[in-house]
Amino acid sequence: MSTHHIHVTINGTAYEGDVDSRMLLVHWIRDGLQLTGTHIGCDTTSCGACTILVDGKATKSCTMFAVQANGRQIMTVEGMEQGGKLHPLQEGFHEKHALQCGYCTPGMLMAGLALLQRNPNPSEHEIRVGISGNLCRCTGYVNIVKAIQYAAEKMQDSEELSVPAQVALAREASNGD
Amino acid sequence: MIPGSFDYVVASSISDAVSLLQQHGDEAKILAGGQSLIPLLRFRLASPSVLIDINRIDGMEYIQETDNVLHIGAMTREAELDNSDLIRERYPILLDTSSLIADPVVRNWATVGGNLAHADPGNNHPATMLALGASVVAVGPDGERVIPIDEFFTDNSFETTLHPNEILTEIRVPAPTDRSGGAYIQLERKVGDYAIAGVAAYVRLNDAGQVTYAGIGLTNVGPTPIKARNAEQFLLGKALDDASIHQVADMAAAASQPTSDTRGPAEYKRAMVRTLAVRALQKALGRATGGE
């Protein structure tokens, strides 16, 4: 057994700590750093509830050791909301009722974010492929797809529209659902 | 689930990885993408005393075609194959293969080299590389050697002919010719599951439309990845038509050695090999003759 001192930046904050080589990244994030937004679902690399971004790549954090993250940049679901304002994806999940129990939601949000960063205007098929590593046992995915479509539109519009216009657009979109 | 204890070391170069392997011998495992190994460690189906992490070695992730050979760095992530223009345009069988591996999140870390070196009969690349007639490059203390893919897998599950002090560094695939094409098709219960059965087919044709090379590989229908040699031989010199495709599909099914499990009875899997072989050959023929 070896112990390692690691430095990791998570949501812009520098963290460091000593980890056993066998400690999974998700356990360090949840138990070591108390960032419990990231969930553990299946523990078998199947469900995606533990999905985070590692150096910008969607990653199942139950399938990486904490020591492997040394020196890397991580984003978890806690990093999405900025200054008390929900990220468009979070807003989309709210507006489109994309969750019931909420267990898969942090992973869905991170997988959705990775998808939109790579492909800002995905088709429905591309969204379904993009979240195919994340299991939801409540919703049947329909509203999750809608929520990601909502965010994609909003994020594209936000480059052109002022904040009040974005809010109006969000209201319109939610009324129309 | 918590893995058993092990020491973790980072290799800074391929030669560093080789000397670490020499130092630790059979007790060590190479940690590539980790998407198969880490689950095995969590289930405690594997318990190496040392993990040698090769993710920090520069220059092991590349996809490039030179001198009629496609060179794929062993640490190339499956997602890189998914998103490569070169692969999509020139090697669509590899896109067929990578895009069916696990799921997109797993593919961000999973590597082509790991998929082969793990030698799981359920993995996709072994069948495809057997069909393509690929080779792999292994580096050990005495330098590098090139291993034809049909000499890479042994008769035992999860075993290769890599020596304990060797590391797989590159995969080499012959470039397409004017009239060549391949396809990989698998039947799966759901995204992320291993195949119920999978078939890779690759053919080269002469101007008369006769087969000058045929490769057929099978996924998850036996204890090892399977190369359907009789079926390949049968096709040589023949035209690919409905009759020959169905005949060769029967031979591919005969080469499979499925067992009954939660993915279905052996008889069903053998029947699926036949059906998938027909479809893979038809798709390969279409690609070889200019269609999709």
How would you describe this structure to a colleague?
- The complex is a heterodimer of chains A (177) and B (292).
- Chain A has 177 residues and is α+β, with helices and mostly antiparallel strands.
- Chain A folds into 2 domains: 3-79, Beta-grasp domain (Ubiquitin-like (UB roll), Roll), CATH 3.10.20.30; 88-175, DNA polymerase, domain 1.
- Helix content of chain A is 37%, strand content 15%.
- Chain A has a 5-stranded mixed β-sheet with strand order 2-1-5-3-4, sandwiched between helices.
- Chain A is globular.
- Chain B has 292 residues and is an alpha+beta fold.
- Chain B folds into 3 domains: 7-53, Uridine Diphospho-n-acetylenolpyruvylglucosamine Reductase, domain 2 (2-Layer Sandwich), CATH 3.30.43.10; 63-174, Uridine Diphospho-n-acetylenolpyruvylglucosamine Reductase, domain 3, CATH 3.30.465; 180-287, 2-Layer Sandwich (Enolase-like, domain 1), CATH 3.30.390.50.
- Chain B is built from 11 helices and 12 strands.
- A 5-stranded antiparallel β-sheet of chain B has the order 4-5-8-6-7. In chain B, strands 9-10-11-12 form a 4-stranded antiparallel β-sheet.
- The model of chain B has no long low-confidence stretch (mean pLDDT 97).
- At the A-B interface, strand 4 of A face strand 1, helix 2 and helix 6 of B.
